[in-house]
Amino acid sequence: MTTDLGALTTAAEQWDGMAGEFAEQEKAYRRDVHGISMGTGWAGLSADAANRRFDITLQQFQYAQTEAKAVAALLRDAHTQFVELRGRLKSARQDAVDAGMKVSESGRVSFDIERLPEESRRAVRQDPGYLEAVQSWQERIDKAVRDVTDADTGVRIALQAVVTDSGVTVGGKGFNGEAKGDIEKYEGEAAEKALERLRKGERLSDKELAELERTFRDNGDDPEFSRTLLAGLGAEGTIRLTNELNDLIHVWGDGRVDHYTKIETGLAHALASATRDTGSPWYEGWREDMREAGVARYGTDAQGARLDKAVGYQSLVTLMQKGDGYAPDMLGDLTDDMIAAEKKDPGIWRLKHEYNGERGGWFANDPVDGMLGLMSRNPAAAADYLSSEEHMKYLMKERDWEVTLHEREGMKVTTYTRGVDGDSRVGFGAALQAAATGIDPSDENARYVEHTEQNEAVLKSALTTLAGQGDDFPPSLREPMANILVNHGDTVHTAMSEVAVARSPLDQTDLFEVTKQISKDQDAYGTLNGGLNQAMVTDFHADTRPDSTESLVRAGRTVGFLEEARTQAQGDPEVAEFAAKPLIDEAISYIPVVSDKAQQGFDYVTGMWLEDEQKRIDNQRVESNIEVAESRNRQLMALVDEWKEAREGEFDGAYDAQNTIDTAAGRGEAKGRDVSGVEPK
């Protein structure tokens, strides 16, 4: 903390001065020795031998300048890094002190209890939360210290490498004519050499593995480091290294799995930073190389156990799933390249046996679906990609999702039948959800965001294409579509309750078919119905005109629309009655934040709806024979109560309100039958 970092810049100036002196020596040598000796007056074998020596000496003067300038640049780079990192460490320490902590000279954090009055000291000692606070600050201080140590190691590696002559001209004992002034490039080269050994099957020592972890930790987000590393490995080498790491992690599973996992994660982050500038020549070259390496087949222990080989793009996506922060254009480019590959070679991804669940789900056997899953982490990128009619049409209607060869054992021979994997379209469903909602499905803390035109376009496109599939609606898309409809709850509620077809914001026929298909899955059914309860209650609180029952009528029609969709779904002989009432997580991430009163109303109405659902199950009756007035009576009456509550007692006709919503529910059912073309029974 007290080291004079200015000594680094002083040393850098001295190295620049040394480069200048070598330049003067080069000039003098060229004039007084090289220029004279290389004249025409001396010929023969001895002259040739001498001239070669004179050339080498002149070259060494030039190389000496290159090396000296590179050392100066490295020292300045080191100064910049150390100043920034020391500043972060000082800032972290001061923040800890300001938060009531005490930080020792060795970096140990403790609660500064002496700064508190006596009565507060006793309370703090009895509060376990203060230990968590101390630990949190200790972790921040430790990270700041580790960052300085990591940078220091990187500088040492660079300074050792910059003065190493890798040429053969003077037997490796001369100046370094290829010296570079970038610390990260030297760290990238060192990492690439170690990883190349690992790729070839060599086992690195614990010290070497720890050094690789440090290198990635310190430089993973630096494009120069990452490009140097990946250029050294090459596209094919990157894939082979990934395969080797995954064999070590998932097949052999020795005591160093944690090391290999961290290295693979570091490699994924390096890939993200190297490809961030998708307009660079480096990126174009890497992508072109990957087009070739990505469709080649590679022997691995993991796939070899299944008498199979991995395809390059499958391994690449397996690697990418360990990282994040990929450029949107890179995600789109690679997805397009993989689609082009499977169009050219149908069945290219097809492997024996399933790859899903805890044991096999780590491997991206469907790389297109895997890329879409990665895209879902960037909702804007997903919306941009899936708002393309061409992309949506291909993924929804044209693509062959059967990437698995399911084993069938017969009496004498084992056969394989193509089919979908257990996690088919999981990535697509996540991307579709992100594209339509603007929310990353994997973000547990995500909240509703305002929709863009692209979000709305994806919603309408998804409705149209999925409705057209009828009962071929992919089961894995039911839950994502339920989340999407809940997220657009206001629009969906308006469409379900609209009397004039031409005024509906969504095609009612498409909406009904998708709602019916969603209703075949218990969790998706619960998400959709529970979420739309909030849309209806919010509408009550937004429209409090004392002389209007529009919001009440709309609520009834939406309930009826939903009920008819459920009735038709349960009429499918392949759909069993739900064995338990739906579990509602309130789809918190996907619905807009509302007022406390509206939230209370939502909770109340949803509670009554769940009681209706329990009643269905207890009675075990056939849905098509139950009138909506009975099967959803509690929900309808609760909606009436909440509608009246929103008017703060200005409406006294309880019976009229109940009759209004009951009648509207029947009309909503009729609307559902009408748009679906099903005749009433």
Automatic annotation (TrEMBL):
Keywords: Coiled coil. Residues 619-646 form a coiled coil. This is AG2 protein. It comes from the Bacteria.
